[in-house]
């Protein structure tokens, strides 16, 4: 499946289980099925994801950029989430999540280098938040916002080597690791050239 959103300069392609992705009037909608997730447990022998989740991805533009979306999640079960997703290799990817973790809607991040880490950032009551992935030089940054204007720094990190990071794919993911499914919508989608001037000053 291929989708071309007018807000983006690159096409998006579906990966993983069927996310029933649709786009209408500026809103992208996807749905995770029961117990769908993308996470490699940090403990244990397996390097395979514990499950898999629907993703819609495209190759990011060259150079620094910002991918922004307002995310609304139909929270029902623990760890339901809407996600901006970054992929540089089969075992190197990252998620910026608006997740019920486990009882309150929370900004969470996962960076996978073979195995996944998992970190909670801050609670955002309700069902809607703004998320942003940026590439800044050879690094990537995650931010979140309650209004799309003032951004809270969440994380900066490197992922992959210089070649794979330059060819990174970015896009959208829906997950429902413990539940029976979760619908997620992304609107106010925007692709900006350049990175934030300062990762920590709210701009």
UniProtKB/TrEMBL annotation:
It holds the Pfam family DUF1349. InterPro entries: ConA-like_dom_sf (IPR013320), DUF1349 (IPR009784). Transmembrane segments: none annotated. It comes from the Bacteria. PANTHER family: REGULATION OF ENOLASE PROTEIN 1. This is DUF1349 domain-containing protein. It comes from Streptomyces kunmingensis. The lineage of its organism: Bacteria, Bacillati, Actinomycetota, Actinomycetes, Kitasatosporales.
């Amino acid at each position: 499946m291929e989708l071309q959103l007018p807000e983006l300069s690159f096409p998006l392609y579906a990966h993983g289980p069927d996310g029933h992705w649709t786009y209408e009037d500026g809103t992208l909608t996807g749905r995770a099925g029961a117990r769908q997730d993308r996470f490699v447990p940090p403990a244990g022998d397996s390097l395979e994801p514990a499950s898999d989740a629907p993703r819609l991805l495209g190759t990011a533009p060259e150079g620094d950029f910002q991918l922004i979306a307002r995310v609304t999640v139909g929270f029902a079960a623990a760890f339901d989430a809407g996600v901006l997703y970054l992929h540089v290799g089969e075992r190197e990817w990252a998620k910026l999540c608006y997740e019920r973790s486990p009882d309150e809607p929370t900004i969470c991040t996962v960076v996978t280098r073979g195995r996944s880490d998992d970190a909670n950032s801050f609670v955002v009551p309700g069902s809607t938040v703004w998320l942003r992935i940026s590439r800044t030089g050879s690094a990537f940054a995650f931010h979140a916002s309650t209004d799309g204007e003032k951004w809270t720094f969440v994380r900066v990190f490197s992922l992959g080597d210089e070649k794979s990071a330059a060819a990174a794919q970015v896009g959208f993911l829906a997950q429902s690791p413990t539940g029976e499914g979760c619908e997620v919508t992304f609107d106010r989608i925007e692709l900006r050239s350049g990175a934030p001037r300062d990762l920590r000053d709210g701009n």
